[in-house]
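Notes from hallway chat w/ T.B., transcribed later so I don't forget. T.B. wanted the structure written out for a chain they're using in a teaching module, and asked if we could keep both sequence and structure tokens in one place. Agreed to drop them here.
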Amino acid sequence: QTPASSGLPGSTPTAEDSPPRQVSSECRSDDEEAPNKLMPPCLVLPASKEEIRIGEWDFDALKVERDFGSAARIVGFELLHRFACLKWEPLAEFLSRLEKLYVKENPYHTQVHAADVCNAICFMVTTVGLWNSQHFNDTKRMCLVIAALGHDLGHFGRNSHFLVATRHHLATTYNDRSVLENFHTATLFRVLDRDRGDCTGEQGVNLLGELSADAYSKARQLIVALILATDTQHHLEALADFRLRLNALESSTPSSGQSAKDTTSNTAGASPDQAAAFDPLGNAKDQQEALALMFRAADIGHSAKRWDIHEAWSLRVAQEFHSQGDEERSLGLPISPLCDRCGFVLPTSQMGFLQFVCLPTWNAIARFEACMQTLLAPPAPPPLQSSSSSCQAESKSGEERRASRRGFSRISLSGFTAPPAGLPPVVHMSTVKPMEESRSARSITKECLQQCEDNFKEWKQQAEALKAEKEKDKDH
């Protein structure tokens, strides 16, 4: 079959009702297709995937919500329905329950934001090459989507600092540590767990019931880790650690323009653990560290979206912050940073946010993408033979030389082509785009880092214009 254009699971359902499945040790993708009439009515896409732009960086969740409504349900079904371990009825119920548990009155933390984060994390993991690699199975893909959809579940427009300051019962429950993130995670698993129930008293939907106990445990561990990684209090520390690990990875896979002296200096100042080899492909802990940073980047992904999308989300987050500041003022509490609407200047605030949080994050992910391209590149051909050997090789027939060269040609990913001896097997999935095609069409540097830099310049120009206008008013 032709892979989906986005490189993510396609939008058409399985061909027919499958027989009862055995409990699976791993989630896998269904490849068959069937007319949309077999889908639950609430899950039929309201428009083509190409029109909605699911799987692309220019996806606009706010526009999808305006045009069709239920942005999280649309994105969630598009990215989850091909996984064979997820039955359609509980999937439909799960997505409907998620939508209800997000507070629609929030300006920012809504199911629309969840849809945006979900699309963003899938784009990034695909772009760096992990999504399509043999080191990343369908259980991990499924966990990424579910974690993104539920990462702010139940958010009511107040941050963890506010909950601790007001001695909220959630702060007591979670001992003042990552209060909201623990709450969102617990709320999500109450929806997923048949034997429990969400805050409305409804029974869980048992979405992951087809997984074995071991697979479920691993899935839960990954989802919990990803959502807890969105705690902004730990972001800069985690980013600094990741940069040191990146230095080690760059030292072990230097680019053609990097000298041995450069690679040695990369790990200067790092602890032995931090300077140890960083293996995001073969080491599960290292891979999770990389996923966690990308997940956090997806949570602030609007910073790297085109200007009109970024500005709209910036206005929304400022509105939500100011609502908290108003309540803090009414309670006689110190007003949290960025939450005081008095004297607040959005361009200046966003300049600082992009300069000190977003740009360093996107820069690190761009570096990680470059390292991944090196790690996933096909092996280089052997060195040229010596002059004496090459003279001997000249006696070979033209057909022998062509056959020899074919042994080191780029491997086709269009099917189950057997690789030459000595290369790892190539596993083709019909639900994802071939790795080379994905990398050539996408770039974190071009689509994310560059756009974030452009957005910073725009905020800077606005801040300078406001400052000039204010000084002009003083003169008059």
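Follow-up for T.B.: The two ends are 70 Å apart (CA to CA). Might be a good example for the class.
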